[in-house]
Structure formats: C-alpha cells, structure tokens
Design a protein that fits this description.
The chain is an alpha+beta fold. It has ten helices and ten strands. The chain has a five-stranded antiparallel sheet with strand order 1-2-3-5-4, with helices on both faces. Strands 6-8-9 form a three-stranded antiparallel sheet. It has a two-stranded antiparallel ribbon with strand order 7-10. A hairpin with a 2-residue loop joins strand 2 and strand 3. The relative contact order is 0.09.
Length: 330
C-alpha cells in the first residue's frame, strides 16, 4: 500500500482494518495528520486500540506506531533518521532537522550555526560544495519540560556515505589509491575552512561524508568548531571531545590547551591511516607520521601546502593522476 495522504476527513465509515493499514503505510506524521490533527489521531487511536481489537498483534503494533507518530507531530521533529553525540537528526520537508539532545549542548549547536553561516559567506564559490548548507536555525521548546533546545535544518546529502561506513565496508583496509582522492578532498575542505578562519575541531570518520560515484566530499557536524586567527596561532579551546574517539585527539587538546589548524590535520590523518590500515605504503605512512608529531609546533598547519606534498607523493607512488572509479560493496 502506498503512503496515504493526511486524514483530513475521518468518518465513522473507516474500519479498524483500514485504520491499521493506514498507520502501517504512513511514512511520517504528515501522512496521517492534516488540518484537524487531533481529531484524526483520536479516531485512528480508537480504531487501533487494543480494547477495540483484543488479541490482535497487528493492531497493537499499529497503535504503538500511531502513538510514536503523534509524539513526533506534537513536537514537530519529523521522523528520526540518526542519533548523534550532540544532536539527533530528523527528516523534515526541507532537509534534516538537527536538534540538540540536551539543552546543555545549545552552545555547540550555536557554534555550528555561526560556522555554517561564516563558511557560506567567506569561502570561495568553487569550494562551497565541501560544506553543508544551513537552511535555517531555530529554537524548539520541549512541550513536556518547557526547556528550549537549539536546532539547525541542514540540506540533505543524497548518495553520501561516511568514512565510518567506508571503514566498516573494508575491514582489511582500503586500497590507498581509493583513499588518495578522499585524503586530497579532505585537505581541500580543511584548507578552505582554515582560509575562512575556522577550525572544525572534530574531523572524525562520522563527520566526513563522501559520494562514492562522484568522488565528492562534505565535512559535516560543525558543532565543535571555533575561530582560527591565522597560521600557527591557536585559537580554539575545544569545548568537548567525542568520547569514543578519546584516544584519537592530540595530547594538548586533552590537557585543555588551545588548538590550532594542526588539530584538524591531525584528526584527518588519523581518519586516513585508520581507513587504509595495513595496506598503507611505507612512504605514505612516513607522510602521515609527519602530521602526527608529538610537538604541536612541529606539525603542519597549512592544509594547502600539505596537499601539494601529498600530490607529489602520490605522483611518485602511482604516476599521473587519473580518475579511479570507487563503489561501496552492495
């Protein structure tokens, strides 16, 4: 059964079987609740209630789903797509609603709002595709507690997969020739952001999205971001770290010291070395070690210069650059 339209006129003619099928086919609250949402909910709840359909497991499941969809309609979140460390993502009509899980993280959501707006105005048009598009920022009040949470609506990324998914799909390590274009594009994204005086602060596998067929890359989740003055000047005092990646961060960040552009380069390097794993050539491994030096003052801070070094290395390893098709396993 295809998804129905909103229940704009609920009459007594509808049967319990029809109501159950209606709820099962709904893709989200908008498929059930129209202008008179409360009346539609009450009628569907009556027809699917366990008291109306005693012993009917299908009706019980429909009743539970109806209740969940009604809660989504009431708080306006839409359908849950993913749970994150700071916020959850919900599907809405004009993108993905990213809503802080806890009001205590409102400052992180505000940091993302500021960063995405700055990227849109400061980054050259040719590099805009490397960053998410902020549709709008808003505040949501919890109908139960009354607490206010910040939210950002982000434009959808069709066909993109995270580096975490790529790593899971290639447990034995990714071919370094495939990792090469991902590494290059990640350096471009960081170079453009740093030129716009922004540090991402959490370049981790879940935050790097790639488009396998088109070789696209988008650096997402700017909740951890901050300003970057220039060059080696550290400016970002990391508000929080992603706990499951605690051992990925450089020691000075865990000690609470300010971070500079080298933090993004450090974490990006960890992403790529983890992705390639044991398949990394010796010269590429040496390049990576140079980005992970213990002393912050000795690490590279210029992503553009590092990109030139990487291109020179790739040329020595694999010859002239050519397009290499890449696909995720089915």
């Amino acid at each position: 059964m295809s998804a129905p339209g909103p229940v704009t006129s609920v009459t007594g003619v509808m049967t319990s079987a029809e109501a159950i099928a209606w709820v099962e086919a709904a893709r989200g609250p908008e498929d059930l609740f129209g202008a008179d949402a409360a009346r539609a909910y009450r009628r569907l709840a009556q027809l699917t209630h366990p008291d109306t359909c005693p012993g009917d497991g299908r009706a019980a499941r429909a009743f539970a789903r109806l209740a969940a969809l009604w809660r989504q309609h009431q708080d306006g979140h839409g359908m849950l797509v993913a749970r994150g460390d700071v916020a959850n993502l919900y599907q809405v009509r004009d993108g993905l609603l990213k809503l802080a899980s806890d009001p205590a993280d409102n400052d992180l959501m505000r940091a993302e709002t500021i960063a995405l707006a700055a990227l849109r105005t400061r980054v050259e048009p040719r590099f805009q595709a490397y960053f998410p598009e902020l549709v709008r920022a808003q505040r949501r009040r919890d109908p139960g507690s009354g607490a206010e949470r910040r939210a950002n609506v982000i434009a959808r990324l069709a066909g993109f997969r995270s580096l975490a998914e790529v790593r899971e799909a290639f447990p034995g390590g990714l071919d370094p020739r495939d990792a090469a274009w991902m590494w290059r594009r990640l350096l471009v994204a960081m170079g453009a952001a740093h030129r716009a005086r922004l540090i991402h602060g959490a370049v981790l596998p879940e935050h790097v999205m790639i488009h396998p067929g088109e070789h696209g890359l988008v650096l997402v989740d700017w909740c951890y971001s901050g300003s970057c003055l220039s060059g080696r000047a550290p400016a970002l005092r990391v508000r929080t770290v992603v706990k499951r990646y605690l051992d990925w961060y450089p020691p000075e960040v865990l000690a609470g010291e300010p971070a500079g552009p080298d933090l993004d380069i450090w974490l990006a390097t960890r992403c790529m070395t983890e992705l390639v794993g044991p398949r990394m050539p010796a010269r590429m491994a040496a390049f990576a070690r140079g980005c992970l030096l213990a002393s912050p003052g000795r690490r590279p801070t210029d992503a553009w210069a590092l990109l030139a070094e990487l291109d020179e290395l790739l040329g020595r390893l694999y010859g002239p650059r050519t397009f290499r098709p890449f696909a995720m396993p089915a």
